Amino acid sequence: MDARRFIVLPPCCALWLAGCASLHQPVSHGPAASPDQPDPPQVVQAPESPPAGAALAAHDEIVAYAQRAIQRLDEVYADVRRAGATDPATHSDDADPPAAVATQGPAQPEGLPVVGAPGSGASGPKAGPGPRAPAAGDAPGQAAAARTPPTIVNVAVRALGAPPGPSDGSGDSTAAGGTTGDLIGALRARIAAQPGDATWRAQLDERLLRVLAGEYEQARAPFEAVPAEQARVAAGFIETLISLREAHGGDVPGESSRLLERVDGLRDSLIPISDLALPKVALCRAVVGFGLYDPIEPPRFPARAGGEFVAYCEIRHLTNRRLDSGEHETHFDVTISILTAEGRTIQEQTIPDVRTRWRDARHECFIAPLVTLPPGLSPGDYVAKITVADRIGSKVAQKRASFQVASGT
Length: 409
What we know:
Low-confidence stretches: 85-131, 133-137, 157-177
CATH topology of the domain at 274-406: Immunoglobulin-like
Helix content: 25-40%
Radius of gyration: 53 Å
Mean pLDDT: 72
Order of helices and strands: HHHHHHHHHHEEEEEEEEEEE
Strand content: 15-25%
Distance between the termini: 177 Å
Oligomer: single chain
Number of strands: 11
Structural class: alpha+beta
């Protein structure tokens, strides 16, 4: 046998006699262990919510604190203004800070800023001096205690929709807090002290104030010791102002019509005391109707051959009277004069007792008489003067139109 085989033989025998560790554990044949059962669910009761009254109380305390802070800031600025300083001095606020109210409930974790504080290292909104740098020998706890919260810069509490009032306290106290009766009394006292027709002005101003206050019945009260025509005009003006104030724009056509009726009524009340007016006079070839005419342009006529034209004239602000039949009548006289450039009258034509009747009251009309120039006029400049005299209103108006007489055709 080979010697090498004898070398391997002793270790093999030792392994056979001693054996080797088994890679598999023996299987137990006892009763199997029951699997682990999960823990039964635990019922956790939710924490009770704070009552609504506590939240309202906290809100009220915050508002009260803000109001106290505003009052103290106002006092500081007032002191600074009185002292003549430019920058307000530091003013400590000893009021209870709202941090205790705002942070009710679960505690804030350390190292997190308080909600609403302007800085990340804030521990509360109370004002105080600036932070001190920790000294070399200070302990960490002392350095943390030396930190101070930031200072409140501005606090504003304002109701929604409330208009800002005067800051300097100026203004008319009567106008700010007085009633309508106080304003009327003050107005009466001021107007009564004015010279002139104070009675008329006082009554009119009082009624205007009544309109602005919405007291329409008192505004419509009759005027005292005032001429009838003046009182009628003032009453028409008051009614027009009331209609204008009540026109809110919901029904524009209807409100405009009602307002126009009031304006027409005011105009009718003004016409009897207004001057007579002749707004338009023209020398025409023909006249068709009111505002429809064919003017001669330029108004030039041949010399020594005569000529003619239709004198168109509009008349306004005529006074009318109501007849027993229900109609309205105007009554006036018309005079047409031909004048030289120097103002000498060379011809005069009169149309007396011109009457017009209408179903409704009217205050304007037109006339169109035919005017024939006298023969033998020498070339030059002339004037046609129309005079209208209102027989009912005792008013007179005149209007002139220039024309030329030229040689030849």
